[in-house]
Design a protein that fits this description.
The chain is α+β, with helices and mostly antiparallel strands. The protein contains one helix and three strands, in the order βββα. It is globular.
Length: about 70
């Protein structure tokens, strides 16, 4: 069998990637037979970085509101 490596947005716990901490959010991730690994250096332009940070804030605020 062939192990295909593909990059997909996968919801994962961010632990420092893209400057995010303690939030589960869709991040560019390498998916292969070895599992899912967040690609921390995937090139994002400034608007994508800003949108990711806004999304993380929204998710974190929503999680805090239900605790």
């Amino acid at each position: 069998t062939h192990d295909r490596h593909s990059i997909f947005p996968v919801c994962s716990l961010a632990e420092g990637e893209y400057g995010l901490h303690d939030v589960v959010i869709g991040l560019p991730s390498l998916v292969s037979t070895k599992g899912v690994h967040i690609v921390d250096n995937y090139p994002l332009d400034e608007s994508e970085k800003a949108a990711l940070a806004r999304s993380a804030t929204i998710v974190q605020e929503a999680a805090r509101s239900i605790r």
